[in-house]
Amino acid sequence: MRVTDLFDNYIFGELSSEERIDFENRLKTDLEFLSSFEKHKTLIEAVNQQEQRTHLKQILSTIHKQEFGSDAKIISLKEENFIKKHGKTFAVAASVAIIAVIGTVTILSTGGYLLKQQSNDITDLKRDVTELKYSQDAIIEGITGATSKRIKKYAPANIEGTGFALNNRGYFITSYHMVKNADSVFITNNSLDREPAKLVASEPSLDIAIYKIDHIDAIQNISFPFSFKDNASEIGDKIFTLGYPRRDAVYGEGALSAMTGFNNDTTMYQISIPVNPGNSGGPLMDEQGNIIGVIRGKQSSSEGTGFAIKSNFIKQTIDKLENDTLKRELTLVTKKSNLRGLKRSEQIKRIQPFVFNVMVYKK
Q: Could you tell me which of 175, 170, 222, 216 has the C-alpha nearest to residue 330?
């Protein structure tokens, strides 16, 4: 989470009790953090005042039209006297707002607080699920004759997305933004009916969360298909992904379009694959079936432009774990992919048991 988002969550009361206490303790102990927050708070207050003035102006304009007609002219105050009287006040207010913006960005950037991994210009690809939508899907499947134990038996999740296996011992990876503050997490696919998962590691700054399921009978004896690419891919490389923007797995393909993500973020690739809500946490693969990244999000202003966390940062996250036993359990396969040389339909057939629909429940 960007620090500016954290500031907003505190100001608007969106932090949990524990997060709020941690935030206030940090304000007391970190003077640079406190300074950044005060400047951000000043900026928010200035923006709110401007919004209030604009709203009041719209109301007055509406009243004016109702009382005097739309053709009536609004007579302004005499500009010369008005500017003389209030010009300094407006200049000071504008200066404070500009200084607050520049100061906040400068301090956060130089102090290491501005996490480029997340931006308002990147749309998270978690899929929000509503009771109505879930009921509609159940009715449709009933009409078409399809059956689903999940629909009939279980309450709908709050959020759904994608995850994929790190090995055949039950460990899988998904997007942190999707599972943050989760009460419980389950996974399913054509091979696994529905399995509870528990969090074992996470790296919020990279939007990575690692989970484990205990009942892996359906996949433990299947040849694990993935290998994780150590070296960087190249611009123009053909790539593909498999994810759950809907209940069935959906395939997408494209090319690697840039070696960096939004704002030249070196932890990400930019990709030209149409990704949608539900694709968060999905695998990004090259033509040989090597994992080269984890789907992160898409650019809000440009359809068909997505971003993926590079696979070497998965390895770095695992290498930083203090639990040596867990670190050994999570050793990634980096040798030759079992999917090399296979046609795409065969690759997908082998991959599918290890790509999961992740269902997230929140209180």
A: 170
Quote the distance between the C-alpha of residue 8 and its chain's center. Answer: 17
pTM for this entry: 0.61
- List, for residues 194-210, the tens digit of each pLDDT value: 999 999 999 999 999 99
For residue 359, give the nearest of 297, 280, 250 by alpha carbon.
Answer: 280
Considering Cα of 171, then 172, then 176, then 177, what sign does the dihedral take?
negative
- pLDDT tens readout for residues 73-108: 555 544 455 455 555 555 555 555 555 555 554 544
Residue ranges of domains in the chain? 3-110, 121-363
d(CA 150, CA 176): 24
CA dihedral (272, 277, 283, 285) in degrees, to 10, reads: -20
DSSP state of 193: S
pLDDT in tens, 140-180: 455 555 444 444 567 889 999 999 999 989 999 999 999 99
Domain 121-363 has CATH 1.10.510.10: no
Is residue 22 a contact partner of residue 9, using CB atoms and an 8 Å limit? Answer: no
